[in-house]
Amino acid sequence: AQSVAQPEDQVNVAEGNPLTVKCTYSVSGNPYLFWYVQYPNRGLQFLLKYITGDNLVKGSYGFEAEFNKSQTSFHLKKPSALVSDSALYFCAVRDILSFNKFYFGSGTKLNVKP
Amino acid sequence: GAVVSQHPSRVICKSGTSVKIECRSLDFQATTMFWYRQFPKKSLMLMATSNEGSKATYEQGVEKDKFLINHASLTLSTLTVTSAHPEDSSFYICSANSFPRVNEQYFGPGTRLTVT
């Protein structure tokens, strides 16, 4: 079965500092990995995805993620955090063997303080 | 970009009644729609997968008779919570994708259900 894990419930960072939100994965075959962001009482918004190619993936709003096969990780990063980045972040994996279902991690709340 | 809407955005119902939530793809034909439930501590749980014109596939532990899913057309899926109870109160989110762009999954804004 495909799964992702987000080991941190919450990440706190000061505005202007770099941020990292962690995700590790467990998949059969090639991983199809995604990051989504959710603002309060809203649906999920797509940030970026890794399917194949370069290990460093660039996405929306200045976010990027690094795919690391040896560590089975797909951490989300941003060089300089903004207060407006404060939200809930989800890592996800697509199960290509089962209707292309997406399975989500438990989510990480990012707090960026001024 | 592709837009998915949900209606209603918020609903309050009495215990024992049924409530229907609609999920629509506004500018594309959704081959597959997914229903998620988000619990208070933020975990997003996949409830079921529905393909247009066929029966939904439910995840383990999700009651089929309680959460009725219908995917009658390529732009509409409905989730009906039957005989709702307070423990069914939650945030329900749908998403959709369209073959062959199966890596693109578009999410609705969610529906907050409160059962009193």
Give the number of helices of chain B: 0
What is the helix/strand order of chain B? Answer: EEEEEEEEEEE
How far apart the termini of chain B lie comes to 37 Å
Task: Label the overall shape of chain A.
Answer: globular
Which regions of chain A are unreliable across 5 or more consecutive residues at pLDDT < 50? none
Structural class of chain A: mainly beta
Which whole number gives the mean pLDDT of chain B?
A: 90
Element string of chain A (H = helix, E = strand): EEEEEEEEEEEE
- State mean pLDDT of chain A (0 to 100 scale): 92
Most extensive chain interface and residues per partner: A-B, 24 and 26 residues
What does the oligomeric state look like here? heterodimer
Q: Counting H and I runs of at least 4 residues, what is the number of helices of chain A?
A: 0
Portion in strands of chain B: over 45%
User: Which radius of gyration of chain B do the C-alpha atoms yield?
Assistant: 13 Å
What is the CA-atom radius of gyration of chain A, in angstroms? 13 Å
What is the number of strand segments of chain A? 12
> pLDDT below 50 for ≥5 consecutive residues: which ranges of chain B?
none
Distance between the termini of chain A: 41 Å
What gross morphology of chain B would you assign? globular
Q: Main beta sheet of chain A: strand number and arrangement? A: 6 strands, mixed
SS strand fraction of chain A: over 45%
Please tag this protein with its features.
heterodimer; A: 114 residues; mainly beta; six-stranded mixed β-sheet; four-stranded antiparallel β-sheet; 0% helix; 53% strand; globular; B: 116 residues
Quickly describe the structure.
The complex is a heterodimer of chains A (114) and B (116). Chain A is mainly β. Chain A is built from no helices and twelve strands.
